[in-house]
Automatic annotation (TrEMBL):
Residues 101-122 are annotated as: Disordered. It comes from the Bacteria. The lineage of its organism: Bacteria, Pseudomonadati, Planctomycetota, Planctomycetia, Gemmatales. This is Carboxypeptidase regulatory-like domain-containing protein. It comes from Gemmata palustris.
Length: 153
């Protein structure tokens, strides 16, 4: 066999190795999370959850919204989105309309005059990242969480 054959073979093997390594290095370390929120034992519908990294210099703060049953999902395994593994403090906010029903508050000034006045229903401690009693530990093995807020005194 000629020297040119071995050079071509070596070049092809090198190219395949580079492609494999590039594919491995582009994989995300992020973990999609799912869970549920209850407020005084009832589904925490239409709430805003903010996840703050336990390390103040850490990356990966994020916000998710609960559905009408208090469930939430953030991230996608195939897309490599979600949260970096680690500890997170969780803050919660939820507004209730004048009838005591969870209200969606858009925050858009153009819609503000059309919205029914709403009142924050979550105690201040749960809304403060430094005082919230809620925290989670995201790992590749543990990414489903149940969070409970006690709003009634």
């Amino acid at each position: 066999m000629s020297c040119l054959y071995y050079r071509s073979l070596a070049g092809a093997v090198f190219a395949v190795c580079l492609i494999v390594l590039a594919g491995c290095s582009s994989r995300s370390n992020k973990v999609p999370i799912t869970g549920s929120l209850t407020v005084d034992g009832e589904p925490g519908s239409l709430a805003t959850l903010t996840f703050w990294p336990g390390d103040p210099n850490g990356e990966g703060a994020g916000t998710v919204f609960t559905d009408d049953k208090g469930n939430f999902v953030s991230g996608d395994q195939k897309a490599g989105t979600g949260f970096v593994p680690g500890e997170y403090k969780v803050t919660v906010s939820r507004f209730l309309d004048r009838h005591g029903k969870p209200a969606q508050v858009s925050g858009k000034k153009s819609e503000a005059s059309m919205e029914t006045p709403a009142k924050e229903s979550i105690p201040a401690a749960y809304r403060d990242r430094n005082n919230t009693p809620l925290s989670i530990q995201v790992t590749h093995e543990s990414a489903t969480f149940s969070l409970e807020v006690k709003a009634k005194k």
